[in-house]
Structures are given as C-alpha cells and as structure tokens.
Specification:
2 domains, transmembrane helix, 344 residues, transmembrane, single chain, membrane, elongated, ABC transporter permease, alpha/beta, 5-stranded mixed sheet
C-alpha cells in the first residue's frame, strides 16, 4: 500500500492573473454602481406648486421654469399646496399673498429637495430686500415652513436613507442562505415566508420603537419590510431553482447593483439622469423605500404602485421556485434515496 501524499495542483499563473483582473473589474463595477447615481444627479424637474393670484405668480413661475430645476403646477391657495405636498404630488410649494411669500418644504420627502427650496426662499428674500430698498418701502416677508418634517430622533433623515442598503442586503442574504441550506421547493418557500415574517417584525422594531427612524404604524412598517424581504429572497431562491448557482449572482446584481442605487432613498428620483429614477421605483428597494417613507410621513399618499411592485417580484420569484427545473435537485436525493443507498 502506498503512503504517498498527493500534492494539490498549483493554480497556473494565467488563471491567477485572470482571477485578479476579474476581481478588480467586479470591485470597480460595485464602486460605479453606488457612486454613479449621486455623481451624475442634478437639481432638475422637481415638482412644486406655485399658489396665489395669477398676477402675482406669473413672473415667479416664469423665472423658476427658466432654471430647469422645477416642474411647476399652479395652485389656487395654500391649502391646495399643502394637500399636494401631503399626497406626494409635489416636494414643496411657493405661496404668494398680500402679506408676503411663504415657501413650503417637506424635508421628510427629501432633504435635498427641501434644501433646494430653502435656497429659493433665501433668493426671494434677498430680491425683496433690494426692491424695497430701491422703492423706499417695507420689504414683504419671506418665510419658510416645513410641512412634513422628519421625526425628532432623525431630524435630517440620514438614518432612513442609510436603512435602504441593509434592507436590500437582508433580503439578498435570506435568499442566499435558503438557496444553499434548504432543499425542496415547498420547504424553501416556507423558509422564505418565515424569514419574511420574523425579519419584518424584527427590523420594524429596530427602525420604529427602538431607533424611531420610522414614525408610523409598527405593523404597517413590519408588513412593508416583510414583503420586501420576501420579494428579494423569493427572487434569489427562484433564480437558483431555475438556473442553479448563477441565479444567486443574478439576483444579487438585480437587487444590490441595480435596485439599491436607483431606489431614490438618498436623492429625489427626478434628479437621476434620463428615466433611471422612475425605473428604480419598479425594483424592490425603490418600491419598499418609498412605501416606508409614505407610511411614516405621508399617510394621505397612494401606496398602490409600491405594493404592486412588491407583489409582482414576489410572484415572479415564487413561480420560478415552484416550476423551476432545479427546484428539487437536492431535495429529491435526500427524500427519495436511490436503490443503492437503501441496500447499502
């Protein structure tokens, strides 16, 4: 009997270099995926309302439209402008009246948009002061009011924006673990559903009652988070059942490198180039992030689109899991052993 020790084959240099190059390309793609949206974004097409008498708002509307930064809708009065903001039809408003000008912002909709409107308020105040100095009359008052602010524990909304990435990674992690550790399509579906329920309740407790990042209903937030976890995990598990191990990588790319950067959690979707902001709302991170924002701060806004997006991704994932050709590859071997295994 030979006691010789087999030495593992050494990786050839060309394969080593190829691996290093592929790893470098991968990290470059990751960097671009996360930096590109913010780097190429600019203040443009921001929906706002300009309300007040036509004679008083015509010149203001023309001046704001010329900048290309705003998409303006005419409003009748302050109440109409507030309603548009609360329904997420506008990020803010400029209301003119006899006593002066009031700029309405909604920092909970987007701190960046609120900052842009605050800049407009400051310019209007400076112009009013110059005109008053030239005419010798008192300058009209220019005030700024935050209609929908963030909660006291997260006044700048930074925690809500940061929460988007862990939620996306959470759904992806659950899908990967279920794909690798659970066999049989029924058991995988059960594991994904259980993960969504437990994870939704746990993450909502952290973001809500514990850290107060979310200020709305705890159960409402848990339902949104759980649905997002289910949609992402089901997609990855379904792709794994459809095409095997490459499906995990494809699911990660869809979720982390496409959906998350385009989600609009940090920037208004209107600021992204081309139509990428709108496209991002058809991915799970964009839909779930918008739903969480609406549930916490804009209860009067419609949530139909977000729920439909989560439902669609969930159905696609479940369909691939249920009918995929690899749905029970491992499970069948464990649950129905071959004749040789039985007689062994």
């Amino acid at each position: 009997m030979s006691n010789a020790i087999t030495t593992p084959a050494v990786t050839p240099w060309h394969a080593t270099i190829r691996t290093a190059v592929l790893a470098s390309v991968a990290v470059l793609i990751v960097l671009l995926a996360f930096l590109w949206p913010s780097y190429t974004s600019k203040v443009k097409d921001l929906p706002i309302v300009v309300a007040g008498p036509t004679a008083a708002t015509a010149q203001l509307t023309q001046a704001l439209s010329a900048t290309g930064a705003f998409e303006i809708t005419a409003g009748t009065d302050r109440a109409a402008a507030v309603t548009a903001i609360e329904k997420r039809e506008a990020y803010g408003a400029i209301v003119t009246g006899r006593t002066g000008i009031e700029v309405l912002t909604a920092s909970a909709a987007s701190p960046v948009a609120a900052q842009a409107l605050t800049g407009v308020s400051q310019k209007l105040a400076a112009q009013a002061a110059e005109q008053a100095k030239a005419s010798g009359q008192a300058a009209p008052a220019v005030t700024t009011t935050d209609i929908v602010p963030f909660g006291e524990k997260d006044p700048r909304g930074s925690n809500l924006a940061v929460a988007g990435l862990p939620l996306a990674m959470g759904g992806m992690l659950g899908g990967v673990l279920v794909s690798l550790l659970v066999t049989g399509h029924k058991r995988r579906l059960g594991a994904v559903a259980a993960y969504a329920v437990v994870g939704g309740l746990a993450l909502a407790a952290v973001l809500g009652p514990w850290l107060h990042v979310l200020t709305g209903s705890y159960l409402g937030a848990a339902a949104i988070i759980g649905s997002a976890l289910f949609a992402t995990a089901a997609l990855i598990v379904g792709l794994h059942g459809l095409i095997g191990q490459p499906g995990i990588a494809i699911g990660a790319v869809i979720t982390l490198f496409l959906g998350n950067p385009l989600s609009g959690m940090s920037l208004p979707k209107e600021f992204l180039p081309w139509h990428w902001g709108e496209i991002g709302q058809f991915f799970v991170p964009g839909a779930s992030g918008t739903l969480l924002r609406l549930e916490s701060y804009f209860p009067n806004a419609s949530m139909t689109h977000g729920w439909l997006v989560l439902a669609a991704w969930s159905l696609v994932g479940v369909a691939m899991l249920w009918f995929g050709p690899r749905r029970d590859d491992e499970g069948m071997r464990h649950e129905h052993p071959s004749a040789a295994q039985v007689t062994a």
